[in-house]
């Protein structure tokens, strides 16, 4: 039986794995189907990770984390966890291949995925000109014009990144003020080839067999439509938490969640179910920062060791 099953291999999961194994737990498995490192690996420029003086990509920031954890005995299983149940004191972790493993404790560190904005054409052209990752897809639009939708930190940071590759970036936002941090807004405004298209709603993204060829936006006050003829549209409108493994057969969640599906935890990352913890972006009130997710992971691991002790 596992001492601890960690679900998710981002900053929270990896840090929990490091602290749990270094703290003496012998049988700890981290379940991560994809590449370790989490959603931050899709970010192009990180300048606010403490101690990391230079601006680095998310990929570079996370590169050494898995090896550091594995040195202390963390096992990585490349498998997706589909369900977690609990009977008595024992958790059962079911993976997508139908196999089950028992665990004395479980940490959910699954994070979140990019939210869809819900405009016409989004589904049809997703992956054919619509993207949620500038680092992955920006290069396809080298020297071309692109549009980017959103007004938070992700949108503005990625607009700045794309402005260095593309000839022009239309920053399309539904309001005329941004959610992003003041310093990020300043960076964005300093880029001469970013045009702010604010106070508009996306009417539709259109295209043909080759993919996206443009989008139409409608001014919210005047109602006029503007046509932006671009081959690429990037969408950064927030994220949805990945709480699927907690869903039980009867449709309820294994532990308490709020109305957005975020897992309710206390300051020790304990959920409403003893032995079940949550860390990082999947929990309530998450600051959605790498450093905070890592802190959550460490906090959870320290308390899991105490719980098992
Ligand atoms: P966010 O802060 O929630 O911003 C989402 C943006 O998308 C908002 O401007 C929102 O508009 C807009 N939006 C939402 N739904 C929309 C829709 N259906 N159609 C059009 N626009 C829509 O999301 P985020 O930028 O992904 O950031 C998430 C969290 O991570 C935040 O806490 C952020 O501070 C943090 N983060 C931090 C850093 C950093 O510190 N370096 C980097 C990235 C992210 P409204 O403003 O009108 O609601």
UniProtKB/TrEMBL annotation:
<keyword id="KW-0676">Redox-active center</keyword>
<keyword id="KW-0285">Flavoprotein</keyword>
<keyword id="KW-0521">NADP</keyword>
<keyword id="KW-1015">Disulfide bond</keyword>
<comment type="similarity">
    <text>Belongs to the class-II pyridine nucleotide-disulfide oxidoreductase family.</text>
</comment>
<dbReference type="GO" id="GO:0019430">
    <property type="term" value="P:removal of superoxide radicals"/>
</dbReference>
<comment type="subunit">
    <text>Homodimer.</text>
</comment>
<dbReference type="InterPro" id="IPR036188">
    <property type="entry name" value="FAD/NAD-bd_sf"/>
</dbReference>
<feature type="domain" description="FAD/NAD(P)-binding">
    <location>
        <begin position="3"/>
        <end position="297"/>
    </location>
</feature>
<dbReference type="InterPro" id="IPR008255">
    <property type="entry name" value="Pyr_nucl-diS_OxRdtase_2_AS"/>
</dbReference>
<keyword id="KW-0274">FAD</keyword>
<dbReference type="InterPro" id="IPR050097">
    <property type="entry name" value="Ferredoxin-NADP_redctase_2"/>
</dbReference>
<dbReference type="Pfam" id="PF07992">
    <property type="entry name" value="Pyr_redox_2"/>
</dbReference>
<dbReference type="GO" id="GO:0005737">
    <property type="term" value="C:cytoplasm"/>
</dbReference>
<dbReference type="InterPro" id="IPR023753">
    <property type="entry name" value="FAD/NAD-binding_dom"/>
</dbReference>
<keyword id="KW-0560">Oxidoreductase</keyword>
<protein>
    <recommendedName>
        <fullName>Thioredoxin reductase</fullName>
        <ecNumber>1.8.1.9</ecNumber>
    </recommendedName>
</protein>
<dbReference type="InterPro" id="IPR005982">
    <property type="entry name" value="Thioredox_Rdtase"/>
</dbReference>
<dbReference type="GO" id="GO:0004791">
    <property type="term" value="F:thioredoxin-disulfide reductase (NADPH) activity"/>
</dbReference>
């Amino acid at each position: 039986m596992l001492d601890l099953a960690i679900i998710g291999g981002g900053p929270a999961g990896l840090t929990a794995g490091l602290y749990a194994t270094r703290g003496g737990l012998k049988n700890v498995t981290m379940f991560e189907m994809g590449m370790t490192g989490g959603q931050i690996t899709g970010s192009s420029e990180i300048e606010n990770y403490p101690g990391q003086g230079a601006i680095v990509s998310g990929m570079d920031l996370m590169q050494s984390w898995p090896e550091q954890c594995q040195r202390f005995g963390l096992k990585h299983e490349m498998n997706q966890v589909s369900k977690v149940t609990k009977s008595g004191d024992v958790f059962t972790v079911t993976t997508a291949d139908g196999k089950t493993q028992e665990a004395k404790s479980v940490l959910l560190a699954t994070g979140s995925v990019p939210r869809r904005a819900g405009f016409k054409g989004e589904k049809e052209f997703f992956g054919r000109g619509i993207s949620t990752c500038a680092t992955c897809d920006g290069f396809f639009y080298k020297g071309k014009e692109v549009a980017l939708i959103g007004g938070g930190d992700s949108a503005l940071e990625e607009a700045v990144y794309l402005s260095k590759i593309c000839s022009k970036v239309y920053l399309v936002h539904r309001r005329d003020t941004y959610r992003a941090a003041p310093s990020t807004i300043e960076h964005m405004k300093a880029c001469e080839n970013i045009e702010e298209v604010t106070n508009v709603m996306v009417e539709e993204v259109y295209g043909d067999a080759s993919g996206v060829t443009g989008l139409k936006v409608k001014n919210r006050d005047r109602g006029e439509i503007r046509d932006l003829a671009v081959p690429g549209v990037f969408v950064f409108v927030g994220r949805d938490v990945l709480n699927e493994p907690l869903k039980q057969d009867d449709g309820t969640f294994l532990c308490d969640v709020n109305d957005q599906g975020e897992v309710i935890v206390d300051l020790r990352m304990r959920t409403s179910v003893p032995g079940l913890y949550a860390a990082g972006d999947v929990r309530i009130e998450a600051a959605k920062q790498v450093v905070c997710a890592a802190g959550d992971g460490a906090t959870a691991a320290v308390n899991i060791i105490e719980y098992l002790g």
